[in-house]
Amino acid sequence: MMLHGSAECYCHALCRAALPTARAVLAALPWRRADGVRLESGVLTAPARFAPPDALSWDSLRDLMASRFRGSAAQIFVGAAGIAVRAIAPHLDHKSRDPAVLVVDPAGRHVISLLSGHWGDANGLARHLARALGGEAVVTTASDTLSRPALDMAVRRAGLRLLDWDQLPAVQAALLESRPVSLYDSLRRLPPLPGLVRIPSPPSEDDARPSVCVHWQALPSAPARVRVAVPCLALGVGCRRDMDADLLRESFFEFCRAGGVAPEAVAALATVTEKSREPAIIALADALSLPLLHFPASTLAAVPTPTPSAAAGRRFGLPPFSVCEAAALLAADAPELLIPKTPLHGCLTFALAVRVSGIFRGRGTPSVGA
Hints:
This protein is of the alpha/beta class. The chain folds into 3 domains: 5-140, Rossmann fold (3-Layer(aba) Sandwich); 151-229, no CATH class; 233-366, Nucleotidyltransferase, domain 5. It contains 12 helices and 21 strands. Strands 6-5-2-7-8-9-10 form a 7-stranded mixed sheet, with helices on both faces. Mean pLDDT is 91; it is low at 1-6.
């Protein structure tokens, strides 16, 4: 999903002579990443023996990384690359979650994109800092140096969600080697890339050829196949008061499995305003990192739905209406439901609507608690 907001950046002066360059690096902020995340400013750090008053001082760089690496957007080391590598090594997780890591020599002549060149946009940050410092960006990712398409960056720029990270190297290698890669994208959400050959239907499970499959559907996994979820679905939620949070979360995945829906294709939860404060719904939105949208009951009651509820109408003193169906339709700005109201476990209902074109923007009021 495209994320917009600000994120934390650290710049580490590894020797006293690196302090001026480290300050110049921080002076080059703010900077906006390819996915819209903005690095507003950065934190200067340095060893305690020479750290200036405005710097975060440390005695152990490895200990500093233990507390500051995860969750940051960028880690910039001004000094030797070997020191940076040893400091971050114990904390590396996955390319979809690791921050951008850069190394700058103390004179500012070279800005090296060391880690998360694409997904963390370390390559873009390296080029930005090189221009600011009057130096040279050192970028080693093959797609950049050979001017070939980078699938993960195309997915990110399109606001899509890459599911099969373990299969990405095989597909990217095929693109780099100019071998054809099948593309199933009936929704036309992935921009054209050289080497991708459109096919009209998903490849079969036993098709071992490199492929990319883009949809909201839950498509089968296979070697050398990258599945990409299109976040275009709004999930309408209705439930009893004091709903069990674990049951609601398990029910969400049960509902997706039954409907053949990729859970990652859900872009927002939606409900009636009175339910937007329900702890279980807030917990589900938090667990899925999704916005929680809500609408007044009177607004929902004005939306024609397939299965209106007389009980819901009585509760709010309105004509019969369906909370989950109307909320899903309004949130997705959709003309009809993909999956109508589905009761689960006698205490909750889900409905699903799909935005048929354009970027999902989600109508409704965002819940502060989510």
